Each structure stands twice: as C-alpha cells, then as structure tokens.
Amino acid sequence: MEIVVASGKGGTGKTFVASNLAYFLIGRGILTVCVDADAEAPDLLLALGGVRKNISILEVSRSRKARINYDKCSLCMKCLETCNFNAISIIGGKPVVNDVYCEGCGACSFVCPANAIKYDVKKTGVIRVDISGFRIPVVTADLEVGGRNTGELVYLAKEKAHEVGHHLGAKLIVVDAAAGIGCPVISSLAGADVLLVVAEPTPQSFMGARRLLETASGFNLKTFVIVNKCDLNPGFMKKFLEDLDAEVLGNIPYDYSVVKAYTQMTPILAYRPSSKVSRTLSSLFSKFIKKVMT
Amino acid sequence: MNRVIAVAGGKGGTGKTFIAVNVAYLLSERGTVLLIDADVENPTTTIFMKTPPKRVIEIRSFKPVIVEERCTKCGLCIKCCPEHALVLLPSGNILFVEEMCSGCGICKLVCRSNAVVDGKRLDGFYKYYEPNTKLSLIAGELKPGNRRHNTLIAKLIEDHKDLFERYDFVVIDSPPGTAAGVYSTLEYADTIIAVVEPTPLGANDLRKFLTLVKMFGDKKLVVVLNKYGIPGGCYEEISNIVTASKATLFTIPYNKLIIETYIHGDIFVKRHPRSSITSKFRKLVSSLDYTT
Questions:
Q1: At a CB cut-off of 8 Å and minimum separation 6, what does B2 contact?
Q2: CB-based contact (8 Å) between A289 and chain B?
Q3: How many CB atoms within 10 Å of residue B121?
Q4: d(CA A196, CA A193)
C-alpha cells in the first residue's frame, strides 16, 4: 500500500509527519519503505537520522536537450519560431538553446531545413537508496538544479521503492511529496492508495489544501487531513474543518521540541517519546493504521 | 534603472511570501512596486490584498485536436509525441490524453494530412490586483490537475517582463524548490533574497538552492534567516553557508505577533509600523534600494 503525505502549501509539516509515521510503523513491526518525492529540496533522510548506509546511487539521464550544429545552421531561425517553450533565443546573431527551458520535444529539429539540430541526453537527477540512521530504508529523488522532469524522477523513485519493498517484504510505502500541486505532486498521487494531507490552520494552508484536494480528486484515494500546529489559530479551526471536504484524523499541537528534534535529526517520537506531541502523534497514527489497513 | 528582486530559497514554508509581501509594501513607500506571485501552485500573496482582482485572464496553450475525416491513421504523431500523450486505440482511432501533453506541437508539425489542428488547453490564470496606487500585484495560478507549472511560471515572467521598466521596483515571490520554474523567476532579477529557516532541513535546501543561483554569475545575494531565535536552531551552520557564498545576512526573529498577523492575512509592516521587526524590515529594504 502506498501512502502519500502532501499539503499544497510548503512548510506545514509534511516531512515531520512522514518521518514520524515511518518511525511509528517500524516500531510496530510494520516494514515500511520511505520515498522522498520532494526532488527539488529533499530532506527526509535528514529527518530520519541521516545516512547510516548507502545501498545504491542511480544516475538518471533522460532529459533530452536540443544541440545546434553551427557548421550546418543557416540562421533561418525557424527553430526559434517553432519552439513553444521560449527555449531558443538569438545571442550574437545565432539561435542559442537554453537547456533549462528545452523540453527536448523535437519540434525545432523537425523544422530545421539544414538538419543542424540533434539532441543530447543530459542528467535528470539521482535516485538513491539509503538505510537511514533509524534503520528505515529511504529512496530519495534528487533533481538536478534547474531541471524540469521532476514527475518522471518521482515515478522512478516510487518504482524503486516498490522494488526495495518487495525485496524486504515491506507492506507499506510512505511518500513524502513536494510542496504545491504541480507535476511532482501529481506523480506522487498517481498509483497511490491513501492521501494524508498535512495542513495548518491558516488561510494560506487552507488554500493549498483545497487546491491539493481538487488535484487529487481524479485519483480515487482514501483521504485524511491532519491539522498541524492546531493551536496557532484556534478561531480558524472550526471553519477550516467544516470547509475541507475530507475526514479529519486529528490535530497536532505546536511545540518547540519539534524543532529541537529536527536539529538532532531525530523523529520526535524517538527524541521526546513522552511529550504531548509524541503522545498525540502516536494515537493519531494508531487510528490511521486501523482505518487504512482494515 | 529599476530594481528586480526575487524572493526564493529552496525549502517550502520558510517565509518567502511573508518576506516578499512586507518588502514590497515598504518599497511602495519609496516608489511604485510591481509584485509578481510566481508560486503558481499556491499563490498566497493574493490573501494579503484584501481586495478582489481587478482583472482575471485565462492562460491557454496549444493542444492537438485531431480532425478524424483527414486523419489517415499513419501513426506518425503517436510515434513523435515525446510525452506519449497520443495513444492508438485497438479501434484504430487516436486517443488524446490531455494530462500528458506538454503542448510542444510536434504532432501538428509532423502530420502530412493537416489532420492535427490547434486546440486550446486551460493552464491557469493571471490575476491582476491594484490594492493602492503604488502597489500592483500579478498572481499566476495553475489550474489544479495541470502538470505544466514550470512552463506557466516561465510564461508569467516572459509575458510581463516588458512591464518591469514602468515600475521603480519589481518583487517576485518565487515558488519553493530548485527546478526550472524557480530559475525563470531568478533570470531577470538583479537581487535574490534567499529566505531560510534555522533547521538542518533549511540549511540543506539552502545549499542546493545556492547551486541554482551559481548558474547566474551576476546577481546580488541576500540571505534572510527567518524564525531566528527558535531554540535549538542551527545558526552556525547557516552563518557558515552565508559567509562562504559572500551573501549579506539579515535576520527576522521568531515571533508570535508575526504569526498572528500572517494568519489574519495582514501585512506586518503596515499593521505594526512601530514594531522592532518593522525596523528590521526597513533596514533590509534600505539595502535593496540603491536609489537613495
């Protein structure tokens, strides 16, 4: 079973919930593989104690980028007119490709009368498998900066996690999604079974959660909401819960020790097991597991 | 010359929008400001405007429409589509999967019988706000379910970059992350503000973000360490990164009043003009305004 932790807005506590959920599950003897699908800013390994042992690093090179052979180029600029992504501009009288904007679609090459455009395959990013400090297997998608094939990298990371899970006999995959609702988040949602939305009681997070639920509506996922930092804005809570069309699993209070736990690269459940936050998380996760595994 | 400032930083939730909105507001006391919300996946600057948009326009891009009568079922469009958005059904008809399409148009280019014609797909919206005579906001908003946020961000910047010179200052609120969309928001900026929080995760993401900044040679870099003072924060690590990247460092403390103001969708420096935090913002803004 694949559980996706997402939020729509950044910084609401996705990695906090995902890391503690994984730690909780392992503690209950439920083998779990984690996926860090926030390929632009991957941090899940850090939240789970850092790297204990690296298992594999796979370099993914699937990004096609146009390359112009200036010995053949007749400077007709047909490529520039054809590109729908603004990836070609005139610099020094010549058409020049900006790799960041190039989708590698092949349109410029097709229209080039001089047959001057070929494609290079460049690095998309890296998929690594590690055993974290807390002995939890983590598959990390790490995009090259300025990259654009994030969704593909996330698919590959999830595929890898299922492979690792199959090998270990793990029942669950926990995916820590990126902020937002774009391509990498859609790839995180596709093929998953359960969506865990981490929200905070602010209008900004509410907007993100609502947009996320709209994005997820096509995927037929069992959906639950966790309200993190719930005491930040008690007045907002009632409206928040009424307006979000999803089952609210519970609330997590705000606590400084969460930041301290992060600094120690330790899930709060391990760092301060008897704190109020940890007790709340444990009962919330127990409830969650009962709901999704039966 | 006007000044273009991009507020970015890598990790989500560090306070990019908070910094961008407050900086834009203080700059509007010095001149005219265009604020661009490029976090098209969740454009929350709109919450601070407290007014509805003056104008909303739909942003559409190419999608193929196949004219059945002309289609010879040669399959060339299917073979050439890099996103596998065109699928040959057993019935011999061609199925178009809109979610996969990048809008590149190669299907139309390769079709020998002119059976692929222009359709329009809704990618999102531009929303225009004018909360006062000195401050304008243009917010890009991705249509939920659309995968092409990087393309929409690039288009948002490209479509409005000619407006930049009409304002004294342009402030761009960038999305989290380090991908192509973030690159677009930095491209025309002369100053980049990287907003970071004092956690190991914040430091880790700042490092990755700085490798993106290195793709440009000529930008001024300011690091704003937000939520400063959180107990147990990793201040030394961040300070070392800032020193190594020759950036200027500003701090904004962790403060309940900030959260309270933020939650109500109020602009902090406007609501609390005499607060010591507002003085800190003023110092930051003075360093950005080189006209004085």
A1: B164, B165, B167, B168, B169, B170
A2: no
A3: 17
A4: 10
Q: DSSP strand E in chain B: where? A: 3-8, 33-37, 55-66, 86-88, 94-96, 116-129, 135-142, 169-173, 191-196, 220-228, 248-253
Distance CA B208, CA B10 (A): 7
The reply to whether A211 touches chain B by the CB within 8 Å rule is yes
For A180, name the nearest residue in chain B, comparing CA atoms only. Answer: B41
Per-residue pLDDT tens over the stretch A107-165: 999 999 999 999 999 999 999 999 999 999 999 999 999 999 899 999 999 999 999 99
Select from A15, A23, A35, A31 the least CA-distant residue to A293: A31
Specify the residue for token string 């209950």: A28
- Alpha carbon A258 to chain centroid, angstroms: 21
What b-and-e string marks burial along B29-52, b requiring 16 or more CB atoms within 10 Å of the CB? ebebbbbbbbbbbbbbbbbbbeee
CATH 3.30.70.20 in chain A is located at 63-122
Helix (H, G, I), strand (E, B) or coil at A90: strand
Query: CATH code for A2-61+125-292?
Result: 3.40.50.300
Q: Determine the straight-line distance between the first and last CA of chain A, rounded to whole angstroms.
A: 12
Predicted confidence (pLDDT) per residue in B178-237, tens digit: 999 999 999 999 999 999 999 999 999 999 999 999 999 889 999 999 999 988 889 999
Q: Where in chain A is the domain with CATH 3.40.50.300?
A: 2-61+125-292
Q: Chain B contacts of A203, Cβ < 8 Å?
A: 44, 47, 263, 265
The answer, for A207 touching chain B at a CB cutoff of 8 Å, is yes
Pick the CATH number of A63-122 from 3.30.9.10, 3.90.550.10, 3.40.390.10, 3.30.70.20: 3.30.70.20
Q: Rounded to two decimals, what is the model's pTM?
A: 0.96
Please give the interface size between A and B, counted as residue pairs whose CB atoms are below 8 Å apart.
200
